């Protein structure tokens, strides 16, 4: 089996849309979905009960157990250096990149726990994470269509085998 492709990127870059496209013909898992199944609680409720640090620890455990051709991560998976190192050692890391304003337009009305902090705080988070996403093996322009991004992934997957 070829190495898994780990899809990373900030909130709103289109990771979930890409997952829905890829799952039509590929083995894809979403770490956030695996997390919610594992803890029997949705992520906003988990944040409220246990906080971000507990979430990040649990997320790291789930990352190491996940197995699929494509593994879609939550935006904050890069918050722990060991996660990014682990993904790079065990697969191919693909970052979706999109300007902040486009991300904000997509997420501002969502129930994501970190969006509750407001636009300025989310932008600071975006700026802090950008260099982490840049450590990916490939950085793709997320302003392209989901189909175009998926076809780039298919090409990269073929080259990786």
Write structural notes for this entry.
The protein is an alpha/beta fold and 161 residues long. It is built from seven helices and five strands. It has helices spanning 15-22, 31-39, 43-65, 81-90, 100-107, 119-133, 146-160; strands at 5-9, 28-30, 70-72, 92-97, 138-141. Strands 2-3-1-4-5 form a five-stranded parallel beta sheet, with helices on both faces. Helix 2 (31-39) packs across helix 3. The longest helix is centred in the middle third of the chain and has 23 residues, at 43-65. The N and C termini lie close together (9 Å).
Task: Give the SSE map.
Blueprint: E1 5-9, H1 15-22, E2 28-30, H2 31-39, H3 43-65, E3 70-72, H4 81-90, E4 92-97, H5 100-107, H6 119-133, E5 138-141, H7 146-160
Parallel strand pairs: 1-3, 1-4, 2-3, 4-5
């Amino acid at each position: 089996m070829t190495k898994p492709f780990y899809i990373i990127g900030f909130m709103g870059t289109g990771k979930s849309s890409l997952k829905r496209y890829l799952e039509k013909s590929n083995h894809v898992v979403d770490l956030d979905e695996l997390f919610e199944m594992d803890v029997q609680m949705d992520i906003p409720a988990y944040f409220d009960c246990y906080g971000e640090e507990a979430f990040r620890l649990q997320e790291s455990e789930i990352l190491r157990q996940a197995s699929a051709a494509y593994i879609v991560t939550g935006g904050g998976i890069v918050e722990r250096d060991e996660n990014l190192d682990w993904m790079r050692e065990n697969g191919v890391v693909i970052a979706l990149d999109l300007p902040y304003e486009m991300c904000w337009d997509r997420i501002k009305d969502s129930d994501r726990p970190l969006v509750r902090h407001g636009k300025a705080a989310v932008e600071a988070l975006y700026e802090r994470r950008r260099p982490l996403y840049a450590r990916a093996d490939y950085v793709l322009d997320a302003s392209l269509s989901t189909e175009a991004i998926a076809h780039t992934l298919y090409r990269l997957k073929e080259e990786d085998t």
